[in-house]
Amino acid sequence: MQERTLVAAAPLATAAPLPEPQVGAPSVTVHAPRASAQTRRRAALAVAGCALSLDAAVIWLAFCASYYLRYTVQWVPGVERGTVWVPFRDWIPFGISFSLVELASLLIAGSYRERLGRDLLDEVLVSCRTSLVGIGLVVIVTAFLPIKLPSRLVILYTWLLLIPLLALGRAVLAVSLGRLYGRGWNTRRVLVAGTTPIGKMVMQNLLGKRKHGYQLVGFLQESPPLAKSGSPGPLARTGNFGRFQCLGTVADLGTVIEQYQVDEVIVTLAAALHHEIGEICAHCETAQVAVKLVPDLFEMSLSRVHMDHLAGIPLIDVHSTHPGRAARAVKRGMDIVIAGLALLVTSPILILTALAIKCDSRGPILNTQRRVGKGGVEFTFFKFRSMYMDADRRREALLAEKGIVDPRIFKDRHDPRRTRVGRLIRRLSIDELPQLFNVLKGDMSLVGPRPPLPHEVAQYEPHHFKRLEVIGGITGNWQVNGRSNIESFEEIIMMDTYYIDNWSLGLDLKILLRTVMAVITRNGAY
After folding, report:
1. Which residues pair with 214 in a beta bridge?
2. Distance (Å, rounded) from C-alpha 477 to C-alpha 515?
3. pTM above the 0.90 mark?
4. Second CATH level (architecture) for the domain 9-33+187-225+237-299
C-alpha cells in the first residue's frame, strides 16, 4: 500500500489567539481532553448493545402479550382447552425464531449504527419497516413450507403490538441517552469548516442534535485568498451567523482544535478549494480528529441527486423536485382532511378560548392581518387575539427598549403587550388554531413557509422571494427546528429554502409529526 504523506499541517497549527465566546452564542469553553478513538468505539458498542437488548426484550414481550390475548383474553371466541388451545411451550420455538428474524432485520437496516442525521422519528419508521419485513418472512415461510402454526392470530397480534412497543422502547432509550449526553457522557464537540449555504444548513441541523451527544462549538470561515505578493489578501469577515459563532478562518484550525478539544470536523468548503480541503483532512488525521466531507454539488439539493453508472463510470443524475399535479392534489386533499378533522376535534377548545378572550380584555376575539401568500397574493390571516389593542402602537417603543435590530424575528418571552389569556394560548399554540380556516379556504397549507406581512415583503432581498413560490403554511421547517429560539432571519430563509427544494409528501408528514412533539414539549413557544 502506498504510504500517504501528510502535508500542510504546520501552517494550520499556527494562528492568532481566538476571541472569547460572545453572549448569546453557543456555550463554548475550554473542555477536558477529548476521548480517544478506542473510548468512542467502546461507548458506541455499549449503546448498540443496550439497543439490541432492549429490542430483544420488546420483541419477546410483544410475542408473549399476543399469546395472552389469543388464548387467555380470547378476543376471538371459540378457543377451548383440549381442542384448539395450545400450551405456551409449543409456541416458544416460533417466538425465538421470530425474535431472531426481527433482530436480524433491524441489524441489516443499520438500526444499531451511529448516524448523525437520524432522530427518534426515523428510528420509529425503521422499526415499522423491519417489523413488517419480519412478519412478511414468517407468512411466506409458513405458506410455502410444511410448517403449520396453530393460530395466525398470534402473528397478527404480535405485529400490531410490536410497532408501538418498539417505538416506546426507542423513546425510552433516547430519553436515557439524552440525559447521559446532557451530563457530558460521550459528547462529541463538532466544528464546521466553511460558510457556504450548505455549511450553514449543517450548523442549523447540528444545533438540534444536542440530545444525540453532538455539541456545535462554532464554525471557521474560508481563509483569505493570496495576493500577488504571496501574502494573504484582505478577508471580508462574515462574523457570527445568527446563533453560531465564528471562531476564525480555516488557517486557525489547529488552534481551534486544541483550544476547544474538537472531536469532529465537518468540511463544507466549496469544491474549488480542494487544496484547503486536503490540508484540513491531513491535519485532522495527524491530530486524530474525525472528519466528514459534505459534497459540493453546485449547491444542489441532495434529494435531486441520484447515482448512476456507465461501464463503471459514476454518473450524477439530477431530478426535478417540483411537485406534479398529482402530488399537489394529494397535498391539497391531505390539507382538507386533516384541517377538517382538527377543527372538529378542537371545536370545544375554540369555543372556550373565544369566551376567555372576550371576558379577559377589550377587543375582538380574532386578530385578522393581511398576509402575503403564493405568488405575492395577499389574503386575510386569522389568529386568536393574544395581545392588548394598543400592541402595534407599543411595538416600536418595545423594539427600541430591547435594542432589536431586525424586527422580523422579534419575539419576547416576557412581552408586556400580551394579555393573561394570551400568555396561555401562545404557550400552548392555541392562538394558531383559527388558521385551519385559512387552510380550508385554500389560502394556506398545513405545512409551508410562514406567510409574511406586506411590509416585510417590501424589505425582501432577491433571494428571499423564493418563499413566495409555494403556498404558505401553519407550520414549517423552522418552526420544528427552533421556533422562537432562532435569532437570524437568514436562518429562517435557509430552512424555508431547504423545504422548498426538498419538498415531498413524506417531508410534510414528518414535519407534522414533529410539530405535534414541539407543541407538546412547548419548545420555543411564548
Report:
1. 188
2. 9
3. no
4. 3-Layer(aba) Sandwich (3.40)
